[in-house]
Design a protein that fits this description.
two-stranded antiparallel ribbon
């Protein structure tokens, strides 16, 4: 039997985030929140968001790309912004062939309507159908109302701080891995 490998530090002594945040001491009992507490809250939110979207996909019997496409089409309609297949391919990061299959699925399910572009008859404008709007509202509407209510509880300065933080966090996540010089002793993400 091979000898057991002993980890450098036992996670139970360092806390659940010790791998990612080795210098973090978790606040407890009325202590002010730390940066790590904020990142833990972001992780909890992301997990809840993923779970909500999985439930929505299951309830609507759709895959993730179809759901994202419909959400994008509905949002574009609210902005009176025409969206075509090429635009959707770019948003979803998929090929034109994959987009064609996605559009066929959505059209066959009664969730998508295609119309000729008003000024370029070779192009198409995509629209979510009333059925798609109703389904999205029924499936995600209550959750979105609860999310809005939570955001409305914040003061205007708190809302601004959250928006700034999340925008900065998004930028940090979008930054290429090689642009920041990592600490040689810090663990890397799997």
């Amino acid at each position: 039997m091979p000898p057991a490998v002993v980890p450098a530090a036992e996670p139970s002594r360092l806390g659940s985030d010790a791998y990612w945040y080795p210098d973090a001491a978790a606040g407890a009992g009325g202590e002010p929140a730390t940066a790590v507490d904020v990142l833990r809250a972001v992780r909890r939110f992301r997990a809840a968001d993923v779970a909500m979207r999985i439930r929505a996909r299951s309830d609507m019997d759709m895959n993730d790309s179809d759901l994202v496409a419909l959400r994008h089409l509905i949002a574009a309609e609210e902005r009176s912004e025409p969206i075509g297949p090429k635009d959707l391919s770019a948003v979803l990061g998929i090929t034109s062939a994959a987009t064609a299959k996605l559009l066929s699925r959505l059209e066959a399910s009664g969730r998508l309507r295609r119309e000729p572009h008003p000024s370029d008859r070779r192009a198409q404008v995509l629209h979510a159908t009333r059925r798609a709007h109703d389904e999205m509202r029924r499936t995600l509407g209550a959750a979105h109302q609860r999310m809005l209510a939570a955001a409305e509880k914040l003061t205007a300065p708190e809302q601004l701080a959250v928006v700034r933080f999340l925008d900065e966090l998004s930028g940090a996540m979008d930054e290429p891995a090689d642009s920041a010089a990592p600490d040689a002793d810090a663990p890397t993400a799997p």
